[in-house]
Amino acid sequence: MPKVTQEHLDARRQLIVDAARACFSRHGFARTSMADVVTESGLSTGAIYRYFKSKDDLVVAVCEQGAAAFPTALTAEAITGLLEHVRRLAREHGHARLTAQIWAEAALEPALGDIVRHQLEALRAAVVALLPERRAPDADQIAEAFVALLAAYSQQLAVRDDVAIEPYTRALLAIVDNPESPS
């Protein structure tokens, strides 16, 4: 019997995670069954359970892969590109709806809460790393506000398809560039 490669196992696992992500985005966590994931993936029930013991394990796997591409600069062009990327994921893959569900579950489920907190910390750290030196004294507060506004944009996309990018770009740039710090 030929040995299955690690690449094959990883690809199969990713296929299952992608199928679960699609189901969760369309129907929500509560209304998605393992049978739905089986159908979406085209695999057998046994194949799914070989990689994931439960739907909760699938939710965690989807959440762990939730980090978005972050720009390498905090310019108008880079921020607009980031927002366009978030909007494209929302429109084409239901990512904003999925993120909204993950946040709601994370408020109740400690394991998901830990993952989301870690992802938010990483996002804030990425913002801090890109801030101009003159903003260093306020870096943590700036990063907190930047990430909060970015999350609000995603949450709006979860329920509205017509969210304009321009106001969010201007607001995010104002957060990053404003040399005045609150007293």
TrEMBL record:
Annotated HTH tetR-type domain residues: 10-70
The keyword Coiled coil is annotated on this UniProt entry: no
Cited InterPro entries: DNA-bd_HTH_TetR-type_CS, Homeodomain-like_sf, HTH-type_TetR-like_transc_reg, HTH_TetR, Tet_transcr_reg_TetR-rel_C_sf
Keywords in alphabetical order: DNA-binding
DNA bind region: 33-52
Top-rank lineage group of the source organism: Bacteria
Any one Gene Ontology molecular-function term assigned to this protein's record: DNA-binding transcription factor activity
Pfam families, sorted: TetR_N
Official protein name in the record: TetR family transcriptional regulator
